[in-house]
Amino acid sequence: MNPILSVKGVSKTYASGQRALEPVDLEINKGEIFALLGPNGAGKTTLISIICGIVTPSSGTITVMGHDALRETRAARMRIGLVPQELSVDMFETVLATVRYSRRLFGHPGHDAHIEQVLRDLSLWDKRNAKIKDLSGGMKRRVLIAKALSHEPDILFLDEPTAGVDVALRRDMWKLVHRLREKGTTIILTTHYIEEAEEMADRVGVIDKGKIILVEEKTELMKKLGKRQMLIALQEPMDAVPGDLAEWHLELADEGHTLRYVFDAQAERTGIPSLLRKLAELGVGFKDLETSKSSLEDIFVDLVEHREQAA
Amino acid sequence: MSTPLINTHGIWAIYRFEMARALRTLWQSLAAPVITTSLYFVVFGGAIGSRISSVDGVSYGSFLVPGLVMLSLLTQSISNASIGIYFPKFTGTVFELLSAPVTPMEMVAGFVGAAATKSIALGLIILATSALFVPLHIEHPWAMVAFLILTSITFSLFGFIIGIWANGFEQLSFVPSLLVTPLTFLGGAFYSIDMLPPVWRTVSLFNPVVYLVSGFRWSFFGKGDVSIALSLGVTALFLVGSLIVVAWIFRTGWRLKQ
């Protein structure tokens, strides 16, 4: 399948000399939800600003549905919608006027049932005649989403969609994203909240210091890099891990009250039964056992730390 | 979905948005020029003008009209167009313009078109106000309208450039208040440069506003400080110069894109 969006060798060095993006290659498939995950300042916003035409790349090419985004700008941009991170919206306009403005700006006639549909989907229809300055922060963000959806884009960029957003809006946003995907819209979101990527994305790209470190199906990523750990709550605290337990590479936590065993959930032999037998043999009593799966967050921290150590 | 050759909806959106901004402050937009013009007539026409019988055979009150219209036209065109593009830069909403399928020239058409429309309306309001004070005499009405339109477009374009250039509100008012207003005052808005000593008359010829005021005055009274052809030529030169700067700005993304 041809990718709907293809980024090749795109880099950015700002006039200040700051290198925001190393040459990046990225392909986005039609209809997927792609999460670009990275810490603040990793280059997420720079990358999507380049794709959307707000920042000029220092090198590279971008193809949007077969159109060169730097040459056939009109054809490429008509297919893209962008919800920025900042609440940048004209405060003195009404909701309806500003959404209609966006639709016209992107080359469509202003009067359309589509605007009503978008406003209803975002629970903004009742507020359509309200001035934007009178709306709450969450409502303003909905307006920005409505503006981005007003021209029926094939690709929607959401830059940090839930930063500083209340729980209700976050839930609505996730629902909306899934509904859009069902209609065939491709969605690319940036986030530094791992749970957001975990909840929404089909694929995850991890970006750090201007480089895309890895791109992977979310489930594959969890499987490949996911570790499990077992916490053993001891009856009597220990000063050190007994030498007989060396082969399990245990760690002491919680001031000696807990033993931690990290194991690979995909391995044939987890080592748990033998560990438990050994503990019984040594007469180590325990009150509780708890196993857990590492989250995307742990994976992410691992990845970034690995790179820092390697550097 | 087809890709249009010209994004007329986009131009229209920007134009309407800019016009709506003026309509929101309709009262100020109308009252300010009417009051200012009236004040000029009271001070220059009534108090001082009564001691000046006529300039080139035209009563001083009537002689003032073209200069007054030009003075407001220049400053208002610049401030209208410069705020129009500066404000989105200031609030951050410029991201939408930059990401939209709107070419630079379409953007200019929307912003400058709206600013020029407002200036033309303003010029007509000032003319109407003047008619309350002095008999209005326009010898070449079509030339007058053409000059009104040409000047409005040229200086709106100039204002658009200033709006892109400005990094703060003080810079935004810098050019209109410290450059254009003095040049207009010294450009023969209130006198004929023939009334100046020869040295200053020569210096005045380096002031581009002289040519605008002179051409505009010609359309009223059939004579100006310089020939009408020269007036038109200098105005057209300024228009072309501004267009070249705008084209350069969009090609390089200067002060708009990183």
TrEMBL record, chain A:
Keywords: ATP-binding, Nucleotide-binding, Transport
Record-linked Gene3D superfamilies: P-loop containing nucleotide triphosphate hydrolases
Protein name (Swiss-Prot/TrEMBL): ABC transporter ATP-binding protein
Entry-linked PROSITE patterns: ABC_TRANSPORTER_1, ABC_TRANSPORTER_2
InterPro entries to which the protein is assigned, alphabetical: AAA+_ATPase, ABC_transporter-like_ATP-bd, ABC_transporter-like_CS, ABC_transporter_ATP-binding, P-loop_NTPase
ABC transporter domain mapped to chain residues: 5-234
GO MF term set: ATP binding
Automatic annotation (TrEMBL), chain B:
ABC transmembrane type-2 domain segment(s): 24-253
Name the UniProt record assigns to this protein: Transport permease protein
Matches recorded under Pfam families: ABC2_membrane
Cited PROSITE patterns: ABC_TM2 (PS51012)
Organism of provenance: Sphingomonas immobilis
Family: Belongs to the ABC-2 integral membrane protein family.
Topology with respect to the bilayer: Multi-pass membrane protein
Annotated keywords: Cell membrane, Membrane, Transmembrane, Transmembrane helix, Transport
